[in-house]
Design brief:
The chain is α+β, with helices and mostly antiparallel strands and about 170 residues long. Helix content is about 20%, strand content about 30%. It is built from two helices and nine strands, in the order αββββαβββββ. It has helices at about 25-35, 80-95; strands spanning about 40, 55-60, 65, 75, 105-110, 115-120, 120-125, 135-145, 150-165. The longest helix is centred in the middle third of the chain and has 17 residues, at about 80-95. The radius of gyration is 18 Å and the shape is globular.
């Protein structure tokens, strides 16, 4: 719940094997928390409805009337966040995500040559029995607007689902 999952989860032994289902939005919120160790609530209680769709309102003259200012709250220690992040890195390096290992690159044009830098990816794939649907949730580092350094604190979460609701 602290990570943004509001779906009721059944406490069953097969929990780690996917016995419970959450929405792709809840998965994205949870991975944002894994990536940063923080949640960014809009109010006192974090739910999947608490994702800021509007981040800024300006009037005709360009004056800011309202702007979303995140107030992050740490819910995972830096150590736990780093350990889980390392597991998700290993999935992309050696596990089910390895075919996408080299997929994310930063291309920096220069006068002398094109520079292409591999961006590390973190995530987990999910596929149903009989391959009726598939999902992926993960993240990539992003640039700090002030220093230009790339890191997870400013990263981007990617969440996708392919399939039908009726499992055909």
């Amino acid at each position: 719940e602290q990570m943004g999952i509001s779906t009721k989860l059944d406490p069953v032994l097969s929990f780690p094997l996917g016995a419970n289902a959450i929405s792709i939005l809840e998965a994205a919120l949870a991975y944002e928390t894994i990536m940063t160790g923080k949640v960014f609530p809009l109010g006192d209680k974090l739910t999947t409805g608490m994702v800021p769709m509007i981040t800024k309102i300006v009037d005709r003259q360009g004056n800011t009337v309202w702007e979303y200012t995140p107030q992050p709250k740490r819910v995972l220690s830096e150590r736990v966040s780093a350990l889980v992040t390392d597991i998700l890195r290993a999935v992309m390096d050696n596990g089910t995500g390895r075919s996408a290992k080299e997929a994310i690159r930063l291309h920096v044009p220069s006068e002398e040559q094109k520079l292409s830098v591999k961006i590390r990816t973190y995530g987990k794939t999910g596929t149903a029995n009989r391959f009726t649907n598939s999902s992926f949730v993960g993240f990539v580092p992003g640039p700090d607007t002030e220093s230009g350094e790339i890191g997870l604190e400013n990263g981007y979460v990617v969440a996708s689902y392919v399939g039908y609701d009726d499992n055909r």
